[in-house]
What we know:
By secondary structure, the chain is an alpha/beta fold.
Amino acid sequence: MKTKIILLLLLPLSLFAELNVAVTYPYIGAIVKEIGGDKVKTTVLAQGNWDPHFVVARPSLIAKLRNADALIINGAQLEIGWVPALINRASNAKVMPNASSFLDLSTAVKTIQVPQSVDRSQGDLHPFGNPHFHLDPFNIILLAQKTAGFLARLDPQNMDFYKKNYYAFAVSWKKKMLTWDEKMKKSRGLEVIQFHDVFAYFNKRYGITTIGTIEPLPGIPASSRHTIKLIKLIKDKKPYAIMHDVYHPTKTAKYMQDKTGIKIIIMPHDIGSLDSIESLEGLFDYLTGAFND
């Protein structure tokens, strides 16, 4: 009898229940749902309209991690301020960074803006480069491929299912990319101001140049001196717009708009960051459409 019980415990989880995969952000949840289908239960920790850098380690999030079979994070230290605390308090070996059921998606892409050195005088720099890589739609395919391999290793019984879903998703996504590429052709060469350089990958994909940021350094509020300097830059260079994220106040941007007439474009960074953004496709439809109004 004991032998039978031990053998049952060793059988793959998928024979008894769907995998419960916790993910840090909604966009990751959307990818997991595309690949995992009905074989995977997806638990998203952060909401799309939250600042992805700063999430409160609430008891409800600890409980979600405690019950998870796996954890997928964005990585590149985007979650450094909140996920380690959750992991420590969840006491679940399956979501530990050294576990085979833990996935860091930043390992699937080549990050940009990797600093040669990091110190506090440079603001809140990310030592492994800009972590907002999912905002290049091409990277979504790489992240989906990485996710498919991860789920297949966790649940080999359904490997073919995950592979099939990945290939179907990749074919569909590449067609959508052609539409977005066409929409963004006339935006190539534009110059913009950002609040924080969230959209570096999006801008690189479509040939848009950021000539200034409202934050003088990452995570550092704008001073009066810096604001005046930016206003002069806007008057001299006449950039297309201020690309502004949804989770920082627009007060300084609106002041600059009053002084220069520059357009402000509110740019969502994730599913749910605006009420109208309900899918990955919807996110990029909105982002590319914002440059064609």
